[in-house]
Amino acid sequence: MNSKGAKGTSKLVNKFVDKADSEIWHEFVKGDDDAFVFIYNKYINKLLRFGVQFAPRETVKDSIQDLFLHFKKSKKNKPISKISPYLYKALYRIIKAKIDASKRAIDSYDEMKENKSWQVYLPADTNLIASEQQKEQSHKLSLSLNQLSEKQRQAILLYYYEGLTHEEIKDIMGLRSKSSVRKLIHRGLDALKSFF
Questions:
Q1: Do 156 and 193 contact (CB within 8 A), yes or no?
Q2: Contact 155/188 with Cβ under 8 angstroms?
Q3: Range 148-164 average pLDDT
């Protein structure tokens, strides 16, 4: 990237870095393309990481593209206090719709369950994985997470990795109550303990 491009990116980040999500969203709704680019750049990797936990990577990439194209076209005037739960929920719905459509096209649901592309992969480039023992534990945790139900994996990922609240997870996953989220997380953690 040339220095002019780097300066443009820096100005974009500086323009929004101290603003609340509600202000950034308001700027986007008003038509500020910089706000759109800032939202995209801030959340693209998080959305991808979230989506690949329950759908194939290409489906997730297509869904993220659909999500941002939809936002760019519609610019909903709905006030948003936190952008991330809104994006996660919208992406979750898009992916689920694509998966449901593909399930209808597949002769047997059992074939789809055998597809190992829904595996959880912990990022190997984090500073947390410094020693061989930690790598082994991380690998064991990844394998163990894959033994959980899809909903348990999603709830644990959203709560512990993305830092969302029970209320936000309830809305994203379309659950009836926060206690359902707590039960999913608790049962998932109990199952993980049994693997160790």
A1: no
A2: yes
A3: 88
How confident is the prediction for the chain on average, in pLDDT? Answer: 80
pTM comes to: 0.65
Q: Across residues 47-51, what is the average pLDDT?
A: 91
What's the confidence (pLDDT) of residue 195? 75
Residue pair 183/83 in contact by the 8 Å Cβ criterion = no
Rounded Cα distance between 185 and 4, Å, is: 46
d(CA 66, CA 109): 25
Residues in CB range of 186: below 8 A, 6 or more apart: none
Listed in sequence order, the residues at least 6 apart from 91 whose beta carbon sits closer than 8 Å to its beta carbon are: 47, 50, 51, 63, 64, 67
Q: Show the 3-state SS of 117-149.
A: HHCCCCCCCCCCCCCHHHHHHHHHHHHHHCCCC
Which domains are seen in the chain, by residue range?
7-118 (1.10.1740.10), 119-196 (1.10.10.10)
